[in-house]
Structures are given as C-alpha cells and as structure tokens.
Amino acid sequence: MSDLKIIKIFGSRIEAEIARGFLQSNDISAIIISDDAGSMYPAQDIVSGVRLMVGEKDFRNARELLDALEFDAVEDS
C-alpha cells in the first residue's frame, strides 16, 4: 500500500481494529499504526493515539463508511 493517509486516530487499539475490520469487509485495505511498544504498553495509546491508515485511492470511500458508523443517539420524547 503506497501513499497512505490517516483516516482516523482512535484512543484504543480495539476501536481501531473494529474500524479496520469494517473497512476490510467493504474491500478497503487498512493498516493500524500505534506507538505502544508492540502492545506491551496499551495505555500509551491514550497519549499518542492509534492511527488507522488507508491508501489515498480508498480515502474518500473509507471516510464515507466510517462517517456512516458515527451517529448520535436519539433521545426519547
């Protein structure tokens, strides 16, 4: 994968893995980059974040898919 772009920065590896799995299920390759010493210090993710990256050609589609997952709860009236 060349020309990688950060699609989103997460606060935990689990969130990033879920998003990556969702993108991959929609035929978009994605990789996760984090500075947590090979998962030995997961608390470091809170400080530096976990970056989800996709190729530049997939960026727009990936953004639309991830944006569709984020929604506000509707309050009962």
| CATH T-level fold name | Alpha-Beta Plaits
CATH architecture: 2-Layer Sandwich
Instruction: State the total count of DSSP E strands.
Output: 3
Order of helices and strands: EHEHEH
Task: Tell me what you see in this structure.
By secondary structure, this protein is α+β, with helices and mostly antiparallel strands. The protein has one domain: 2-Layer Sandwich (Alpha-Beta Plaits). The chain is 38% helix and 23% strand. The chain is built from 3 helices and 3 strands; from the N terminus they run βαβαβα. A 3-stranded antiparallel β-sheet has the order 1-3-2. The radius of gyration is 14 Å and the shape is globular. The mean pLDDT is 82.
What is the gist of this entry?
The radius of gyration is 14 Å and the shape is globular. The chain contains three helices and three strands.
Task: Supply the key terms.
77 residues, alpha+beta, Alpha-Beta Plaits, 3 helices, 38% helix, globular
Topology:
Blueprint lengths: L3 E7 L2 H13 L4 E5 L9 H5 L1 E6 L3 H11 L8
Antiparallel strand pairs: 1-3, 2-3
